[in-house]
Amino acid sequence: MTGRLVAVVGPSGAGKDTLLGAARLTLAEDPRFVFVRRAITRPAETRSHAGAEAHLPLNEAAFAEARAAGAFALHWQAHGLHYGIPREIQARMAEGRVVVANLSRAVLSSVPPAYRLCVLLVTAPPAVLASRIAGRGRETPQEIARRLQREALLPEGLDVREVMNDGTPEEGAARLVGVLRALAG
User: Fold this and answer.
1) Which architecture does CATH list for 4-184?
2) Please, what is the end-to-end C-alpha distance for the chain in angstroms?
3) Which of 19, 23, 40, 70 could form a disulfide bond with 55, CB atoms 3.0-4.6 angstroms apart?
């Protein structure tokens, strides 16, 4: 494999999906990049809002069947949901492409060395995180507080680049795109 996997991680409310959506649009015509659509055991968003992720919605049984069939290169569970990254990323990396995916910090230690992992840590100040999470309307105030209390530890020895998303979505997206372009060479 000559390409690489770029994992976009960060706390809830950091704006990962918003920045990824903008980066996907900006880099749509650049063949060096592939943006991954995750499978998630969550229904499709019923309302469109800033940062809504266009994921592949699967129920528990369909996800378990896909996992058993080897459909996922990476999979994990978080927040009571199952997440999967399609196995096809291996072919894209073999083509020399930069595969960009929204991953959980918990799955980073299981990424094979051949994927040449680079982690983009999207972050923002706590007050900004809380406001963004509340704006999604999916969690109670207690659930928001629990999310904000989770410590964001990353496994040691990873290639980590920080992307601060404390301004406008356009500013954060420009920072993310800049790092991605530098990684692609």
Assistant:
1) 3-Layer(aba) Sandwich (3.40)
2) 16
3) 40
List C-alpha distances in Å: 47 to 13, 22, 113, 138, 166: 18, 19, 38, 11, 25
Distance CA 147, CA 136 (A): 13
Q: Residues at the annotated binding site?
A: 10-17
Helices and strands in the chain: count of H runs, count of E runs: 6, 9
Distance of CA 178 to the CA centre of its chain: 17
For 138, list phi and psi in degrees, rounded to 5. Answer: -100, -20
Average pLDDT (94-101) is: 96
- 36 vs 134: which has the higher pLDDT: 36
Q: Where is the binding site for ATP, in residues?
A: 10-17
Q: What are phi and psi of 123, to 5 degrees?
A: -140, 165
Residues with Cβ within 8 Å of 21's Cβ and at least 6 positions away in sequence, in order, are 51
Mean pLDDT of 123-129: 87
Total residue count of the chain as it appears in this document: 185
pLDDT in tens, 2-24: 799 999 999 888 989 899 999 99
Tokens 């680049």: give the residue. Answer: 161
Q: What is the CA radius of gyration of the chain?
A: 16
Beta pairing class for 39-40 and 81-86 = antiparallel
